[in-house]
Amino acid sequence: QVQVVESGGGSVQTGGSLRLSCAASGRIFSTNAMGWYRQAPGKQRELVADISRKGRTNYADFAQGRFSISRDNAKNAVYLQMNSLKPEDTAVYYCNIAGNYGDSPWLTEFDSWGQGTQVTVSS
Questions:
Q1: Residue 1: helix, strand or coil by DSSP?
Q2: Over the stretch 45-75, which tens digit does the pLDDT of each residue have?
Q3: CA angle 96-110-74, nearest 5°?
Q4: 75-95 pLDDT, tens digit each
Q5: How is residue 110 annotated by DSSP?
Q6: Of residues 104, 90, 96, the one with CA closest to residue 50
Q7: What's the pLDDT at 107?
Q8: How far apart are alpha carbons 27 and 106 in whole angstroms?
Q9: Which value, to the nearest 10 degrees, does the dihedral of the CA atoms of residues 63, 40, 92, 62 take?
Q10: Is the pLDDT of residue 104 over 90?
Q11: What is the pLDDT of residue 25?
Q12: Which end of the chain has fewer CB atoms surrounding its CB within 10 Å, N or C?
C-alpha cells in the first residue's frame, strides 16, 4: 500500500546537527499532515513537530528555536533539521505521514509510520 521510510539518524556530540528525511511511496494521490515524533527509552512517544499540507508548522516546546520541519509535496517527503542537539534529544525518531492513496475517485485514507531512526547525542 504505502511505505514510509526515514533516514538521516546517527550519533553526534552536544551542539551538533542532524537532518532527518522521510518519504512515502506507493500509489499516493495526496498527502495531508506530516510529523516527526520521538521515543526515548522508558518514555512515551511524543510529538516533535508537524506540518500541514499548506506549510503551517507546530513545534513542541523543546524543539522550538532548535528544530525546523519542512516538506516537499511533490516528493511526498518531510524533513527535520535539528540544530544545537542535546543529550536529552537522544531517542528513536519516527515519521508519520497521512493522506490518500489509490486512483481517483476510489481513494483510501492512510496514516503511516516509518520504522524509526536512532539519534544519539553524546556529551
A1: coil
A2: 999 999 999 999 999 999 999 999 999 999 9
A3: 70
A4: 999 999 999 999 999 999 999
A5: E
A6: 96
A7: 92
A8: 12
A9: 0
A10: no
A11: 95
A12: C
C-alpha 116/C-alpha 72 separation (Å) is 20
Count of CB atoms within 10 A of residue 11's CB?
Answer: 12
Q: What is the mean pLDDT of residues 10-22?
A: 98
Concatenated DSSP letters for 66-106? Answer: TEEEEEEGGGTEEEEEE-S--GGG-EEEEEEEEEEEEETTE
Q: Can you tell me the distance from the alpha carbon of 9 to that of 110, in angstroms, rounded to the nearest whole number? A: 25
Cα–Cα distance between 35 and 60 in angstroms, integer? 11
Confidence of residue 1 (pLDDT cuts 50, 70, 90): confident
Tell me which residue has cell 476510489. 106
Sign of CA dihedral 67, 58, 75, 121: positive
From first CA to last CA, the distance across the chain in angstroms is 41
Contacts with 77 (C-beta within 8 Å, 6 or more apart), sequence order: 21, 22, 23, 24, 71
